[in-house]
Amino acid sequence: QVQLVESGGGLVQAGDSLRLSCAASGRTLSTYAKGWFRQAPGKERELVAAITSWGSTNYADHAKGRFTISRDNAKNTLYLQMNSLKPEDTAVYYCNAVLNRAYWGQGTQVTVSS
């Protein structure tokens, strides 16, 4: 069983940066595909960025050039560096890990004011 706990969200102004963290416990995530998703009020959950077990990354168009996904296998932690934040980035951000099944964290709120 895998437990994922996100942190690092908060209230920031447009143009600011945040770094989200997702700490995993229960199993090492080095062999899992991992990602960050977000869900804004009234909208479906959507992919932000993903990273494979071998380190290949993929970004949604809205994240390209502003967000960076990374992992620290030694710390069993996934990160999302978010720069140049916009009000439309306001959402609950969830981390995700997949190996045979999907695991989700509880989410962390990111609010960007204009």
Q: What is the end-to-end distance?
A: 40 Å
Oligomer: single chain
Q: Tell me, briefly, the overall form.
A: globular
The arrangement of helices and strands along the chain is EEEEEEEEEEE
Radius of gyration from the alpha-carbon trace, in angstroms? 13 Å
Q: How would a crystallographer describe the biggest sheet?
A: 7 strands, mixed
Mean pLDDT: 96
Residue ranges: pLDDT <50 for 5 or more in a row? Answer: none
Instruction: Assign a percent range to the helix content.
Output: under 10%
Descriptive notes:
The protein has 114 residues and is mainly β. It has strands at residues 3-7, 10-13, 18-25, 33-39, 46-51, 57-59, 67-72, 77-82, 91-99, 101-104, 108-113. Strands 2, 4, 5, 6, 9, 10 and 11 form a seven-stranded mixed β-sheet that branches. The chain is globular. It starts with a strand and ends with a strand. The model has no long low-confidence stretch (mean pLDDT 96).
Secondary-structure map:
Layout: E1 3-7, E2 10-13, E3 18-25, E4 33-39, E5 46-51, E6 57-59, E7 67-72, E8 77-82, E9 91-99, E10 101-104, E11 108-113
Parallel strand pairs: 2-11
Antiparallel strand pairs: 1-3, 3-8, 4-5, 4-9, 5-6, 7-8, 9-10, 9-11
Descriptive tags:
4-stranded antiparallel β-sheet, 114 residues, 0% helix
